[in-house]
Every structure is written in structure tokens, then in C-alpha cells.
Specification:
The protein is α/β, with parallel strands linked by helices. It contains 15 helices and 13 strands. Strand 12 (about 300-305), helix 12 and strand 13 (about 320) form a beta-alpha-beta unit.
């Protein structure tokens, strides 16, 4: 890799997530790792949830909404924002070496800026979505698309052949097996050290499998004496009703005493390390960052056999994969690992080794660093 005589200047365009997800956390992590090599300038909405994560990094920020609206009535607003952004870059004398779009929906801004500034554009796609014809055209104009999984890469490859897969990486200092002994661990903090804890973490939506999680819980409580089910996460503001539906379902089944709702948890590592099993049953998932976070904490993972999870987990070696509706067999698997401590240890040890070999933050940052170097040096 070429030496950094002068630091590369990376302009990062950030979308507007309603909740901070894996893609945003990965962005913050790799900027933290690379900011001594690259000069970053991030474009982010000031009232964005991401703002508080980026500000402590002490990188330059420009406040501007850069989600490109597809509606015709926003044409002039999009143009105004583009001109505003160009003006801000000129004032800061920031001529980017590369434009990095940290979400598919900011790709148009990146493509148009790249053309104006004669700068390479890389888009990072981390979600499963159905692109419009305009999306397909603009993605084809990016110099490279990075996908967070092979599954996402296959979807995007229909309109962009220049593609790399870079899996998210996890900070092994933040997520580690040592946290199982921490007083901040929820097992100790909630005085549940005698209980077998099974949890699910994420935005509370139908597709994340929380209702399937309840079905499995109903079958497990009769087979394990001391068991609790932990749910960490919140719904989107417009989908609060889903949380109410979920709580009503638990109430109808008479399971209230077995469930603990934690709401949104910023330091999720203390939840994951306190769980005995992460039961992750999404209907579909681009990757599944929470799985490798569990690997890093030596928490056993049982997941639905779909897209991202099936790419990460090797069934019966680093975790277990089932159809999301295979409630009886999932419950039997939980009971099996509860009773067979040797099997449990074997699986989590394999998963931890897999994490160290493939999914550390250092490995992710190294790959992104290499891509930045390649496209800047050869542009």
C-alpha cells in the first residue's frame, strides 16, 4: 500500500437513519481507525442521531441534508443543497480525493459532486432494497460499490459490475468475552445471575422476528426452570404500534413475567455479553452485525437461515440456523445447549475464532484503507 505522504481527503456523505444501525456504527468505527491516515469531512444533518457519534471524533463536519428526494417537486431543493455543499467545500478549501457515500440513498449527491469535482465516488450499500431505474443509472456511474455482504452484492451487481464485498468489523476492545465478568453486564446488573437469558436486539419491526421470538419463548419456558427473555430496542417513531402489538401478544400468552424490555440501549455490549443465547430470527437481513457482536462476546447465536445470517454462521459449528417459523426445533436446540455445556462451549469458541479471523474492526479498516488508496492513486 502506498505511504501517506500527504493525507488523503475523504468527503463522507451520510444518510438520515431514524435509528442508528450497523452501517452508521461501522462508519464511525472505521473513521476512528483511519483518521490519522485520512482527513475526513462528513456531511450530516445537524439534528441527526448520528451527530453525537461523529462529533467526539473531532473531524470536520458540514451540516446539510443529502438524502436525494426522488419527487419532482424537490428538484430545486436538491439543486440548492448541491450548490450549498459546493460553496461550503470552497469556503473550507476542501478538495476531496474521494467521495464516500455511506448509504444507497445519498448516491445521487455523490455522483453529481464527483462529476463536478472530478473525484472518484464509492458507494457503500448495506441494505436490501428495490432500486428504481434512476437508482440503477446512478449506481452504474459510481466508480465502485462496496457491499456489506455477498447477498447484497448479488442484488446490486445487476447494474454495477465494479463491486467489492467488505464485511463490517467489530471493535474487539469494546465487545469481548471479558465483559461476561463485568458488573455492567445485564445478568449482574438486573440480578439475574441464576437465570438463562435469551435475547433479541434491534429495531422493533415485523421483519426482525420479534413475534417469532415470542413463539419460541412459549415453547422454552416449560423446559428450562429459570429463564428470562430480553428484548433490547425501540420501534421507529411511526411504528410504535408494533411494540404495543408485541406486548399484547406476550400478555395474551400469559408470559409477562418472563420478558424484560430494555428499550434503546447505547452500550449494547453489556446486553450481548449478559445473554446466554442471541435468538435472531429476521425475515430477511442484509448482514446482521449483531451476530458478529455476539461472536465477539462468546454468546451463542441461533438465527434464521436467511441471506446475511446464513453467510456469517456455519450451522452447528459457529451457531445454529433454522427456518424462522421452525419454533419446535429452535426450542429444542435452546434446551440442548442449555443442558450440554460442552457443546455450548465448543460452539462459542468456534464463533470467537471466526470473529478474530474475519470480523475485527482492524480487518475492515485495512480493507477500506486499501480500496481508498487504490481508487485515489489510479484515478
Amino acid at each position: 500500500m502506498p505511504a501517506f505522504i500527504n493525507r488523503y481527503k475523504i468527503l463522507v456523505l451520510v444518510g438520515e437513519p431514524e435509528r442508528i444501525g450497523g452501517g452508521e456504527l461501522s462508519l464511525v468505527d472505521f473513521i476512528k481507525r483511519l483518521k490519522n491516515k485520512c482527513q475526513f469531512l462528513c456531511v450530516v444533518r445537524k439534528d441527526s442521531n448520528l451527530f453525537k457519534f461523529l462529533r467526539p471524533l473531532k473531524i470536520e463536519l458540514i451540516y446539510c441534508k443529502v438524502n436525494w428526494s426522488r419527487k419532482g417537486k424537490y428538484i430545486f431543493l436538491n439543486l440548492f443543497r448541491l450548490l450549498y455543499l459546493l460553496g461550503k467545500l470552497k469556503l473550507k478549501r476542501f478538495k476531496p480525493s474521494l467521495i464516500f457515500c455511506n448509504a444507497g440513498q445519498v448516491n445521487p449527491f455523490g455522483v453529481y459532486l464527483g462529476r463536478i469535482l472530478n473525484t472518484p465516488v464509492i458507494s457503500y450499500v448495506q441494505d436490501i432494497f428495490t432500486p428504481s431505474e434512476k437508482d440503477k443509472f446512478l449506481f452504474s456511474k459510481a466508480d465502485l460499490i462496496i457491499a456489506n455482504s455477498s447477498y447484497v452484492a448479488r442484488l446490486v451487481s445487476h447494474f454495477q459490475k465494479n463491486m467489492k464485498v467488505i464485511h463490517p468489523g467489530i471493535d474487539s476492545q469494546r465487545f469481548s468475552p471479558q465483559l461476561k465478568e463485568s458488573e455492567e453486564n445485564i445478568k449482574f446488573k438486573l440480578n439475574l445471575s441464576d437465570y438463562f437469558l435469551i435475547g433479541n436486539i434491534g429495531t422493533i419491526t415485523y421483519k426482525k422476528g420479534f413475534f417469532e421470538f415470542v413463539e419460541v419463548a412459549e415453547r422454552v419456558i416449560f423446559k428450562i426452570n429459570k429463564v428470562k427473555f430480553i428484548i433490547a430496542g425501540e420501534p421507529k417513531p411511526q411504528e410504535v404500534y408494533i411494540l404495543e402489538e408485541l406486548k399484547n401478544k406476550i400478555k395474551e400468552k400469559g408470559l409477562e413475567d418472563y420478558f424484560i424490555f430494555l428499550g434503546f440501549v447505547e452500550k449494547i455490549e453489556f446486553v450481548l455479553s449478559g445473554l446466554d443465547v442471541l435468538l435472531f430470527l429476521p425475515h430477511f437481513e442484509a448482514f446482521g452485525r449483531v451476530i458478529i457482536e455476539a461472536f465477539a462476546c462468546k454468546t451463542l447465536v441461533i438465527a434464521s437461515d436467511v441471506s446475511g445470517p446464513s453467510e456469517i454462521i456455519e450451522d452447528k459449528r459457529t451457531g445454529f440456523l433454522f427456518s424462522k417459523n421452525d419454533f419446535e426445533n429452535i426450542a429444542e436446540c435452546i434446551v440442548k445447549v442449555y443442558n450440554d455445556k460442552e457443546l455450548y462451549k465448543k460452539i462459542v469458541d468456534n464463533a470467537y475464532k471466526e470473529f478474530l479471523e474475519k470480523y475485527t474492526l482492524e480487518k475492515m479498516a485495512e480493507k477500506i484503507d486499501s480500496v481508498f488508496s487504490e481508487y485515489i492513486e489510479n484515478y
